[in-house]
Amino acid sequence: VLSASHHRAYDSGLWAIHPESLEIVTKPNGPSMEDLGIALRNLEHLENLPHRDALKWAWKNVTADWGDKNTN
Prior knowledge:
- This protein is of the alpha+beta class.
- It is built from three helices and two strands, in the order αββαα.
- The protein is 32% helix and 8% strand.
């Protein structure tokens, strides 16, 4: 579950979750994880992971304006 501020930052495209590695990635030239108050680097520790198809959809949409960096 995300806090309201983390959810807004996610919806604004400031960070995303890589669908394969579950790594949290911030927008290039955007705020850092520290700036956003994100302490964990990935979601591997979660018992119940988000659905991979949802992560793929979100990754494609959130990172569309990021260019080629971090979008593999």
